[in-house]
Write a structure and sequence with these properties.
363 residues, alpha+beta, 9 helices, four-stranded antiparallel beta sheet
Length: 363
């Protein structure tokens, strides 16, 4: 496993469109991180720039066969010139241990904290590697919760500049940018809002970036091609609305910070990517999860005979499964291969769930 830091410019904005009833409604909402299928689309579209189509086909096949894997992008807070806090999605666990567990070893969460538990969305690498239970996340002697969403250990918190070491610090915010369609036939329909996630920035050494994890192919030629494509993402960007300044990156940095996360395939797994199970049997291996609708974008000119991509349901990051799964790459083109396939990446990319969180998985 490789760690790839996607360095972002100051106050970087990204638009990761959600499914809406119409084009403007899709623009008015955004995911806060780049899902794995979004990153996959960016990688494949960038690879398609190269004249060697055989390498593009090999890369797509490698994704389909699981020889290459990627996670969704998650948040990384650079707190100094050399210190980073890496965040993972909160696993889809309960605030109560399941009934088969010895409750003397697994604490129940205070009833007054249950709404706060539901708001938490990300755990730091330090929390992930500790023996903390969900109840410990709310112990001020052990952890600090930023903006109600990000849990860090107090050891990690000491690295944060004192001015920002408090619960009100926001690592991102969703902003709504007013837009106007100049050539709209109806002037009243010309105004709309575009949502974007804006990453936190305080100074050059205290700012928020994204990162992703990848499983590199063993084929050295394909691995070199993948690295070249990733480098070109700096020019291409990720996500939507790049023509108006969203989705920009400044550097792709290959690091080792999360390379050693446990990935025992037979243990309980937490997904770091979107998942589309390849069979009913694989779906049955999923224990606890939430889903999201992907696809549905219009691929023809507005007006008559509009054609939209098919929609599919994916399992979100943080899902718990009995073991590592395969998943699949799905073609959502309603006309199959005409003019070309539109792929959505639903391959499973997961890590082992820590032992201290297993009692909170409701099976």
């Amino acid at each position: 496993m490789q760690t790839i830091l996607l360095r972002c410019p100051r106050r970087a904005r990204f638009h990761f469109g959600q499914v809406g009833l119409g084009e403007n409604m899709a623009l008015s909402d955004t995911a806060v991180l780049a899902h794995s299928d979004t990153l996959f689309s960016a990688i494949i579209n960038t690879a398609a720039v190269f004249p060697d189509t055989a390498m593009l086909d090999d890369l797509i096949d490698a994704f389909k066969e699981g020889k290459v894997g990627i996670s969704s992008a998650n948040f990384c807070w650079q707190v100094s010139a050399s210190d980073y806090i890496w965040f993972l999605p909160k696993p889809a666990i309960s605030n109560e241990p399941n009934q088969s567990v010895d409750t003397s070893k697994a604490q129940s969460l205070d009833t007054g904290r249950r709404k706060e538990f539901g708001k938490v969305r990300f755990l730091s690498k330090g929390v992930w590697e500790s023996d903390f239970t969900p109840a410990d996340w709310f112990d001020p002697d052990k952890c600090l919760i930023l903006d109600g969403k990000f849990v860090v250990t107090q050891t990690e918190a000491l690295k944060i500049p004192e001015a920002y070491r408090h619960a009100r610090t926001k690592l991102y915010e969703v902003v709504n940018l007013p837009k106007v369609r100049v050539h709209a036939a109806d002037q009243q329909q010309g105004f709309f809002g575009q949502a974007a996630v804006q990453l936190g920035y305080w100074d050059e050494n205290c700012r928020v970036h994204y990162y992703m994890l990848t499983q590199m192919p063993e084929d050295k030629r394909l691995a070199a091609f993948f690295r070249t494509v990733m480098q070109l993402l700096i020019d291409q960007g990720i996500g939507g609305e790049r023509r108006v300044g969203c989705g920009q990156l400044t550097e792709i940095e290959w690091r080792t910070d999360l390379n050693e996360l446990p990935t025992e395939p037979t243990a309980l797994q937490m997904s770091l990517s979107l998942l589309n199970p390849k069979s009913v049997a694989e779906l049955g291996e999923c224990l606890s999860y939430e889903t999201v609708i992907r696809g549905g974008r219009r691929i023809t000119v507005a007006g008559e005979n509009e054609v939209y991509l098919n929609r599919i349901r994916m399992i979100l990051e943080g899902a718990i499964s009995q073991k590592a799964l395969d998943g699949r790459v799905v073609n959502i083109n309603p006309y199959d291969e005409t003019p070309h396939p539109f792929y959505r990446l639903g391959r499973h990319f997961s890590i082992s769930l820590p032992q201290n969180l297993m009692p909170y998985v409701q099976q």
